[in-house]
């Protein structure tokens, strides 16, 4: 029996690599649905190669282009998130790989869980924002979320066969991004081209900027807290520039487990797609001779203020991670558009975190309202302070 896969965000960095993994084992997987935003060319090419039944496009122009190029074919092409949520009901789809960017990943994740699909999750924002809502729902639906984020895949792999009660803490590794050793002056002059040029990982724009500002690690801490059902004080971050150890679990008996591989997203994607089996094929084997020295350093929360802000959001909980995330999404977009400097991203996030109304036990609607208001407040702050 082939696994019937829906790839949400198929034209992004994770989506294209997921298709590469699938292509390596066509006897195991069939692509039933692909979805993309504005990259019509790539969606058309993917459709022709992988022959999914359904194609979802969420940007109007791209939708027109895809529809025109694939008219008189049997592809079922639809527009927008509402239709995506409906199509997920299709019985051919048993596994949903969610590689959407940011808040847009939330509703498709919730819908997939409600529909009791297998979930492979690369979208970290959804769990960081609404883990308190999502994880009990996943438990009720008996749904295991297999993480694709390399750190969470590492922890997931370290925890196979272990009991939650045996965990002392988990240690997330962070590469530190391209600006780890920048001086304050250098830090103030960072432009988008530099931020998108990560020393180790090749990733999409949003996650590249988040990696450089350490907000990515902040979101990953909150994500880990919910995915592995831990307390905030059980989560630590350490800088490991080579990104070979993807994360570690410290057990109460003093033993420490780590997961190592080359820094290559194909590996956690492959693990998630093949789980609970392991693939026979490796996209890049690890060799210690290529990495003779693995180094570690303290994650400086003063220098990387985003890490401190994410920690506050994780500890306080409620709708605060949603506020943090919304402000960050606006800040990153403004930075990429050269409307807001990189070094002022934490200032904006902190300001919005303190100006928005805190709700300690939000329902699903609250996450949406909070996000909407926080986006508006962030945009107003940028207009006023530039
Ligand atoms: Mg990661």
Topology diagram in text:
Blueprint: E1 3-8, H1 13-24, E2 29-36, H2 40-50, E3 54-57, H3 60-69, E4 76-79, H4 80-87, E5 95-98, H5 106-114, E6 118-121, H6 124-140, E7 145-147, H7 150-158, E8 167-174, H8 184-188, H9 192-195, H10 205-213, H11 215-227, E9 235-239, E10 245-251, E11 256-260, H12 266-274, E12 297-298, H13 305-316, H14 320-336, H15 345-355, H16 364-384
Parallel strand pairs: 1-2, 1-5, 2-3, 3-4, 5-6, 6-7, 8-9
Antiparallel strand pairs: 8-10, 9-12, 10-11
Helix pairs in contact: 1-12, 2-3, 5-6, 6-11, 6-14, 10-14, 11-13, 14-15, 14-16, 15-16
Bound molecules: magnesium ion.
Overall description:
- The protein is of the alpha/beta class and 386 residues long.
- It has 2 domains: 3-147, Rossmann fold; 152-317, no CATH class.
- It is 46% helix and 16% strand.
- The protein is built from 16 helices and 12 strands.
- It has helices at residues 13-24, 40-50, 60-69, 80-87, 106-114, 124-140, 150-158, 184-188, 192-195, 205-213, 215-227, 266-274, 305-316, 320-336, 345-355, 364-384; strands at 3-8, 29-36, 54-57, 76-79, 95-98, 118-121, 145-147, 167-174, 235-239, 245-251, 256-260, 297-298.
- The strands form 2 sheets. It has a 7-stranded parallel β-sheet with strand order 4-3-2-1-5-6-7, with helices on both faces. The protein has a 5-stranded mixed β-sheet with strand order 11-10-8-9-12, covered by helices on one side.
- Helix 2 crosses helix 3 (60-69).
- The radius of gyration is 20 Å and the shape is globular.
- The termini are far apart.
- 45% of the residues are buried.
- Magnesium ion binds at residues 149-151, 220.
